[in-house]
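## Example pair
The file below holds two records. Each record gives the amino-acid sequence first, followed by its structure token line.
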Amino acid sequence: MSRDEKFSKTKGDKPPYHSYAFLNAYNLSLLAGAGVVSAATGGWWIGLCAAAAEAIWMLFAPDSTVLRRTWFDKLWNQDKRDAKLKEQAKKFATLPQDSQTRVLVLRDLQGRIQQLAADNPSFTIDLLRADLGKLDGLLDDFLEMAVVCDRWEKHLSSINFAQLEWQINAYHEQLAQFPGGDDRRDICEKNLEVLVERRKRTSELGENLQSARGQMDLMENTFRLLVDDIVTMRNASELGERLDDLRTGVEAVRETSRETEELLRGVDRR
């Protein structure tokens, strides 16, 4: 089992300490070596001792505070980072060229901000670590919004708005021709209701797309502003406040995004 597989099975849960204790090169090499020597020499006691040592290791190693702090937790953090980068790469690959360029520019700005902040003597290491960690989250948010916006744009581009308006007008004209109680009038009214609802929802989708794109622009502009200002900042709280403001805006867009995805599914069903 690979480390990616181990991570996928435990994602969101506690670190797989037992897996880390058993499935590592050192442990497996020792077990294999003992097995080979035992088989080659006929010394069954070698295999028995290796099995006993392994049992003791697996009994105590996963719960060892020292091993967790110095080894297992580092593996867990690396696994999470690797999984995150893998997920980012998957999303990045789905984006059109212009959106990929924007993501790469933002990533470059992130690196410049981190370097300039590290060079600013007014920032303490602890505050710097806490605030700069927010940049990773914002980059994830930007990538996610880029993917969502691309999906919305593709959906909107598939809609023939001129034809939709023509259909609405045509059913309005038909409605005026059929008397009350006519079955054709009832069907006409239902069709018109569906078409008007489609027009309303696609209009809302377009507005939400503009808001999401605007938030992406704001993130880019704020990152550029930080590159300009971070050299002269005297307190890391200034950096943190600006990043927190961005996260607040992103959360608002994310909430709208969830509503829009529901709206989009409703449009598709119709």
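Second record, same layout:
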Amino acid sequence: MMRKLYLSLIFLILTAGISYSQGFIKTGDLLKRQGGGELNIIQDQAIDSLISRNIVANRKVRTTEGTQGMLGYRIQIYYSSVRSAYEESSRVRADFINKFPEMISYPHYQEPGWFMVRVGDYRTKTECYKDLLRIRKEFPNAYPVPAVINFPGQK
């Protein structure tokens, strides 16, 4: 009986230490102002807990290029698995870069042989529709797809 009690006590101490080591982020720390001033946020402690969990979960999100990213949308302008799909996707991407030099495009490969060309980094589907309408004039089969995108301002 004592052995079970000691094992339970050791287990509780270890799990408490592990959960404490993850760090706890307060909303006030995220919204610190530059250049002075004071910000008082009055909210339930559970909100800070949810924000911390969200930050920890999003640290694991990676783009296809391997950089840290976030969930969002890109516009897909090409998708094929035919034999010449690699060459055709390169041609479509070069054509897109010539027609829209201000927009960034990403070549993407997905097993077992699908080649894609995706465009832009949009946080919401609504945000991508302005560019989608412009792109559809040149690439009529373009459509928005969920993707892991780069953070705003990061290329």
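Notes on the second record: DSSP finds five helices and four strands in the chain. The two ends are 60 Å apart (CA to CA).
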